[in-house]
Amino acid sequence: MPAATVGTFLVFLIILVALVLFVTEPVSIDVTAIGIMVTLMILGPWTGVSPREGVSGFSNPATITILAMMILSEGVRRTGAIQRLEKTVASYTGESEHKQLGATVGLVGPLSGIINNTAAVAVLLPMVSDLAHENGTSPSKLLIPLSYASMAGGMLTLIGTSTNLLASDVASRLATDYPSLHAFSMFEFTHLGLVVFLVTGVYLLTVGYWLAPSHVTPRSTLETTQKEEFLTEVIVGQESPFVGSTIREALEEVDFEANVTQLIRAGAYHREPRLSMTIREGDTFTIRLTEDALRTLHEVEGIEFVPEVTPQGGLDALGPGQTLIEIVVTAGSDLVGETVESSRFQDQYQTAVLAIRRGGETAYERLTEYRIRPGDLLLIESEPDTVDRLADDPNVIVAGELALQQFRSSKLPIAVGVVFSVVGVAAFGLLPVMVAALGGVMVMIVTGIVKPAEAYGAVQWDVIFLLAGVIPLGRALSETGGADLLGTFVVSTADFLPEIAVLGLFYLLTVAMTNLISNQASVVLLIPVAVDAAARLNANAFAFVLAVTFAASTAFMSPVGYQTNLFVYGPGGYDFSDYARVGGPLQVILGIVTTLGIATFWGI
Hints:
By secondary structure, the protein is an alpha+beta fold. The protein has 26 helices and nine strands. Strand 2 (258-265) and strand 3 (268-271) form a beta hairpin.
């Protein structure tokens, strides 16, 4: 076994601290990644990472390609290409849940192989949500499959997911020491990706359909079923008719079902107050109630909504353009970690946040003190121009229908042509994928499909900084001998396991890590270890690289395992356990299928 050096221990310590920070998230994961990069450079004499190498992640071809693909995806979204599908899909599926599920899986899979799976889910989420709501299907039945199918579809091409691009770059860097390795071509693993996608699709249409929950009741059936609930907060004013009444009498007077979860009076908090308590002026109530009940409460005199009072007259008396809309907070949003008040979201958009829901649970904190997390769903009151602005904001996803005329429909043929040209040029080796993608971005900007400001706004900068921050960690692991040390440990399992089982072990190890931390970090950390283990076993190093790559791109068992899982977390009303229940069996099945597929197609 190779001797451990001071540098080895330092790198392992950095990795340990990074893992804790990635899991607990006291700061966002991109900030943690930058901290890793800075620490490696400061400790350069021991970690082997010079300042030039430390910041090399920003100029890395994988990082630049991912940035370009984000802009290309935005160009497709700006044309309304995805929204055009909604009427066609709805006319085919009708009220059949299986047809809706089949259409969801069938659309997002191939699309994820072309424009990046995260972007595919972002543009399809509103369409799938509307499809479910309008046809009597619980969105919970469709949204986890949307996420899972996008992950499997992302493995159809090199550009389907950022993980593939990063894995390709790591493999090409290791090719100097391991001649069997090389950068991935566009369709390097499409045949295995197709098998993975088909197996995932069959599972989602059968076992997955049965295991998926039905937490969210569709809007079209709210009149006859239990209604979707939100959390909101109100202050009782002096002129309110409720002053002097008991809580029970007030609820009977407004004639709707609601759960009063908290009363704040004179600075004192009363959790689940008794219905016999008398209401006083200035009382602040936290209430869990339905959207219809929210409308009714707006019409009651002397009731103010916290943190902002909505326009006078109630929702039904507002102008025809004003509406209630739901938005989902994205993983890299500026809103994460802020409260509704501290983020100044309402001032920026001149809108009122009426309620917040997180997954399948409704929290009990005051809205003004409620720390926003990725996947939270906010119910807001807005106007059409505000909806359009929100649709352009990368911090949120509008989980509702948008009018087609706001898109640049005339640019649709050009946008689609650009994307297919990028894929074709890279596939035939005419240009490197990075150059092809940047060329596509230039064409989209010059032709007006995407404006320069929109291009900058389309980039998920937290992902870019995350990539740039973790890339030097892989180099440090190799330079200090850490990869050799871990590889030796894993190879020792070959004393009692066949090589194919060791390959499967790397798949499971990557899955376990990715379900807790960033998939990019998993690839950077484990590919050097897997390659070293393969070399010690005299096995096919490329096969081990693929095992890590596929495992990191298909993490189904937690909402934090992949960004698309977070996108659907709020709109689907999911609990953390739903991902383990629906994704667990699929994870095991794909572990077997992927391992056998790699052994069949590439050998061990």
